[in-house]
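Justification of resources, computational component.

The compute hours requested in this renewal are based largely on the per-chain cost of generating structure records like the one below. Each record pairs the submitted sequence with a full structure-token output. That output is archived, and it is also reused by downstream analysis tasks.
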Amino acid sequence: MNSSTQKMVRLAVLAALGVILLSIIRFPIIPSAPFLEYEPADVPILMAAFLYGPVSGFFVAVVVAFLQAVTVSSASGWVGFIMHVISSGTLAIVAGLIYKHHRTYAGGILGLALGVIAMTIVMIPANLFFTVHFWGIPSDVVRGMIVPSIIPFNLLKGGLNGVLTVLIYKPFVSFISNENPGVGLARNRSN
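The structure output for this chain reads:
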């Protein structure tokens, strides 16, 4: 299998894994906003961003968000799709860009931390715009949820997914490198 085909297959597997994870693991983490549910779909998205770069991570985020929108979260419709793309896409792009230029353990941690912060920041105006204008929630209600619910939710979700990515990344890279020793992903000892 040539390397571009192999890359597409791996990205497809990561996207499928993201959809499976969000289908079977979903639970609220902020008691005051039980509709905000944690799901670990960002872990395969982050792995794609670390393995193949921020564009690949964003691509996997779009695929996962689309499949989520037409299956397990169909009630949220296109707004949920856009919100998921904004959230996971921001996380993948920021984390992937930093890791692309600093392919070390510290670079990965920095990328994840800044990605979580960027995701948290970008979801404030996204909620103020989409939740108010398309889901009809009054703006004062959404504003009142920013500090006690929206910010903590994004920090917790992103942080948990970042920790899981750190724990799973090396074994995953070792596994796919042993599967095809020519891939060269495990050769960089600083990954």
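The first helix runs from residue 3 to 24. The longest strand covers residues 27-28.
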